[in-house]
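Hi there,

I know you've been waiting on this one. I reran it after we fixed the sequence typo, so this is the corrected version. Both the input and the resulting structure follow.
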Amino acid sequence: MLGIVNYSGFVIAGIILNLTPGVDTMYILTRSVSQGKRAGYYSVFGIGTGALIHTTLGSLGLSLILAKSATAFLIVKYLGVGYLVYLGVKMILAKNNQFDNDKQKLEKLDLKKIYRQGVITNVLNPKVALFFIAFIPQFIDPYYAKGPLPFLLLGLTFMTTGSLWCLFLAYSSSWITRMLRGNDKIGKYMQKISGLIFIGLGLRLLLNEK
């Protein structure tokens, strides 16, 4: 089918991989727990957009640069580490309680920022690019593949299943912690903990080898 082999197997494998927590999942959960359902949804949209960018670059073969160039890989990796640490430090040092939705309503500009941060977090994770060029080609027939189309279709499938799962996570985690966000003292602690999580994710990305 359009150069794709074992599509059902790809969907099953993709869902299993979607259920495996990573940097993107932690970003979505942190936003959902701290700032509620809408923030969680916009973080999912941002991560999904990042995955779409990776899919497009992978279909064009540009992601191979990261796989073959150690310098390019390290540059993107350090940028991602720096960005995650920056977000964490910013949350820890913030004096206002960003987690209290009763005192700080999420405006359109805030939601755009959350979306943009989701995009950057995903795009600056070189392991996502390597995953796409290592996993997806296994389900593409090298003899009957029709240009970038099968890669794009498989990438969109993976992005769709992943987004649906993440939307569920965003909704459920925001609902469970809704009462906690209304407590100013607990909200401040959650803010600091979330900042430490972002820093931890950055250090994890830094320590992981290619």
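Quick highlight: Confidence is low (pLDDT under 50) at residues 100-104.

Best,
R. S.
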